[in-house]
Design a protein that fits this description.
Layout (H helix, E strand, L loop, with lengths): L1 H6 L4 H9 L1 H16 L4 H16 L1 H12 L1
Helix pairs in contact: 2-3, 3-4
Length: about 70
């Protein structure tokens, strides 16, 4: 999940935060499984999930985190 979400431009700092928080990680897993049950495949799921994550974060925060990672 981590790498697939990275492939769809979710900043590492965001993923690190999600994966270090049990509640957030469980929410991610449950959502991922629900999309699998609806017939989506790994990349399709990652694309959907990344859009939700990035939308919830907001463009300014995502851009600032991306700039930090590039340095």
């Amino acid at each position: 999940m981590y790498q697939r979400l990275r492939d769809y431009h979710v900043p590492m700092a965001v993923l690190d935060e999600i994966f270090s928080n049990k509640k957030d990680l469980e929410t991610l897993r449950e959502s991922w499984k629900a999309l699998e049950k609806n017939g989506l495949m790994g990349d399709e799921i990652a694309e959907e999930m990344s859009m939700v994550i990035l939308d919830e974060l907001g463009e300014e925060l995502v851009q600032s985190l991306s700039n930090i990672e590039e340095k």
